[in-house]
Amino acid sequence: xxxxxxxxxxxxxxxxxxxxxxxxxxxxxxxxxxxxxxxxxxxxxxxxxxxxxxxxxxxxxxxxxxxxxxxxxxxxxxxxxxxxxxxxxxxxxxxxxxxxxxxxxxxxxxxxxxxxxxxxxxxxxxxxxxxxxxxxxxxxxxxxxxxxxxxxxxxxxxxxxxxxxxxxxxxxxxxxxxxxxxxxxxxxxxxxxxxxxxxxxxxxxxxxxxxxxxxxxxxxxxxxxxxxxxxxxxxxxxxxxxxxxxxxxxxxxxxxxxxxxxxxxxxxxxxxxxxxxxxxxxxxxxxxxxxxxxxxxxxxxxxxxxxxxxxxxxxxxxxxxxxxxxxxxxxxxxxxxxxxxxxxxxxxxxxxxxxxxxxxxxxxxxxxxxxxxxxxxxxxxxxxxxxxxxxxxxxxxxxxxxxxxxxxxxxxxxxxxxxxxxxxxxxxxxxxxxxxxxxxxxxxxxxxxxxxxxxxxxxxxxxxxxxxxxxxxxxxxxxxxxxxxxxxxxxxxxxxxxxxxxxxxxxxxxxxxxxxxxxxxxxxxxxxxxxxxxxxxxxxxxxxxxxxxxxxxxxxxxxxxxxxxxxxxxxxxxxxxxxxxxxxxxxxxxxxxxxxxxxxxxxxxxxxxxxxxxxxxxxxxxxxxxxxxxxxxxxxxxxxxxxxxxxxxxxxxxxxxxxxxxxxxxxxxxxxxxxxxxxxxxxxxxxxxxxxxxxxxxxxxxxxxxxxxxxxxxxxxxxxxxxxxxxxxxxxxxxxxxxxxxxxxxxxxx
Length: 750
Ligand code: PEP
Ligand code: MG
Hints:
Glucose Oxidase, domain 1, alpha/beta, 4 domains
């Protein structure tokens, strides 16, 4: 019995394959296919609905329903039974369609006489393409076998759709991945870029979904799985045993690669007539649609592992490796689901922009993107399934928006924006070597933030006076183990060489919270941002902190050294950390190493508590650097990574600005230099208001130095302060509207 069902299914697929091979128009093919399926499944009706746009399904061919309804009947995703199949990517099988939840009557189709309904999604790798439906008059549920057979057919239709088999004037269908698409994500790094898509993991194309020799296909599948197992075992044997997360993933890979259930399902698909790669894809699609609905994080991760593994298997089967022979465009915009910092760094400055489906603002990839000043947009759902290598793409890292295959108008507006920015950059170059002195004669010193050797050339080109924040995490994040002291000393030395005597403020390792080292045992903390992080880790595990301090002393090799400690919450922590540095200086001297010519030791003020520390703290600190990203999240109790709340409170909120002023005053009392190095320092209006509240030093991404200098040079700070004071006196929540209004009157628009 099973055997005859399988051979019937193979026969049906064989007939579909013939239509694919025929030289006929898209509509003709669709019509033939509905006829073949209805005939083979012995149903009165077979209909194919395909997506017209991302939201709308259209009846594209039917056997049994009224032909006049073709290309007329449309429904939105989620609407009616067909819309529900598409929305939930799940089959609906009922003997009494009108009684089914969500049923919608479409009079023009004449479907009211058909009682039973079986609809399955046409989908490929998580991409919804349409719905395949069979209906019959007899009020009975379809059997599991019939459902399975229809799913197999739907898989072949998905591949045919992908291959463009239904494209044509009559069908009104254009090839997939041709339409302009707009993606709204989240900004991970500011900046705009125009370029061409470069997929981190290129799409696999399956040109042979149907195969008529199941034995041969099973052998191919078995051989590919064997090869996959060997490669997973190899990865396991070279994986570092301390990297528990990586081991966990690889163990999950191994489990799937040896899973009988997975293998059995794929073999059954092959028995039904699918080729080995189409079988892998079918099971992968099922797992992907489940991925979207599983609430359990652990299970979701495992399904994700299965997805990765299926991709590897597909590459083996199709011979389409990561190297598809495609050439990287000159202006590549990298598209990936997610990417690790090491992989991203290996692309380096080649990339014009980055777009991720997942990621987070504080992720390692975002840190690298920020360090490399590459525009980054994250949370762009579906972009890896939509984008094709070489597609034109525009990335707006300011708005968090991505235009894929933009139409001419969008492209023109975007290019105008880029041209305006380029023009402005030229203007900034002309003031590169003059100070940021305001109309009223106050000079603000502008520094840049850095984190990589590759950032240092910007010191010269941006006109920054020095590096106000050198984040040292990256060198720790991109390795599998703690970097060696000599390596770090050499790097710090090179950074100082490249700074040509300009001051570089090295911040000691700031990990924990969102920045988890690959080789660090993940701590299950209920609230990591408030947890064991930064200097807290440094003081508890002083070995690494001391090693880094030694590397900094050696890197300085007789030059001035500036060190600051992150996330100091109370005086005592600063004292202890400072003592470590003083002790290391002693020790290095005893060992005969050259000491730095001078040493400055500062603290980052990132928790409100430190602003209220005893006067002695301010006296002891050689300088203070306000880490505004963290300070703001703690001041407003609003997680900087949580999309729901992170933009809720304005930096120019009166309470926050007043707090900044208090910090500036306290530092002023003890003559302690103070600077602001959070992202807000790189935003013109914010930077201006900070200056008005008394800050005289700001550190920002290199690209911001020019715009901010240009604004500062054009304004009278006393007047700005007057505007702010008036706004405060008025009881405003934020001074932004008043300041923007003032600036508009001066001819500035933001
Ligand atoms: C900050 O918190 O403002 C800061 C500069 O540090 P990071 O963004 O690296 O936490
Ligand atoms: Mg911080």
